[in-house]
Amino acid sequence: MNLKLYRFKTDLNVFYHIYTEMGFILLILLLVISINCTSQDKNLYRFDPMNHTGEEVTLSEIAEDIIYIPLDNSYPIGIVYNIKVINDQVFISAKDLGILQFTMAGKLIKKIGTIGRGPGEYTTFMSFGVNPKNETVYIKDRGNVIKVYSKSGNFIRSIFLNQKDSDVELLDVFNDKLLIFNYLQTVRAEDNWIVLDTLGNHFKSKKRSIPYFLSNYSSRSGVYNFQNNIFYLNSYNDTVFSISTDFSAKASFLLSPGIHRLPLSNFDPRDQSPVRLHLYYIFETNRFII
Fold it and tell me: Model pTM greater than 0.70?
């Protein structure tokens, strides 16, 4: 499998696309929005997908270079759930394999932990985070558990979540804390996101801003780092929030509400009338929201 990395013109991050050997795109840039940076602090940017008239943007305008990384074949990699580039190392969550760690040259460093139901093992691993300071890996396992592994890949401990914090959609590490982002379409999700210290102690949380609801269609959420903040998106919200290093939050920009939004109720996802906006991935550079 080849990993294709785009280095975008931003001060913190390496963003990426993945291509399999057959050339299928697993992650797709959905939209490019030009930002007027001079007015960003004065007014929230509002994006209406039904009335957006985009301009052609070449990759060279936002990408500094492209890196191809041929991953070694120690493990046959099929479906990739998640990728993180930390300290010039690539961490991949791969179906039936678990968390794999590679060098930027594509050489396998190690496999983090073991899939299984025994002590120190994990059975689910789509959501994980890596602390860039010590490369400790945090994996959201089945149920109410986060499994913690050392830089060498050895199991350290389990963090047991409260029942109301168990509907975890995303897990990330930010400023030496664990950020847990909940599925909003579940009745147990009292908070939009929760901050824990690395031992699992509650540090801070943000209450959900929309009433409880049930939907037969799971939303997609995303987090990304930019300009020393972490940004959070949930498809059922119209707001992208910016979380600073002191874990205060504010609205960064708005996705205009309308008939294209995912409804807060059951619906048939095959119904294309109206067309629905479902963001899978989003990030920023100094000039663009992508």
Answer: yes
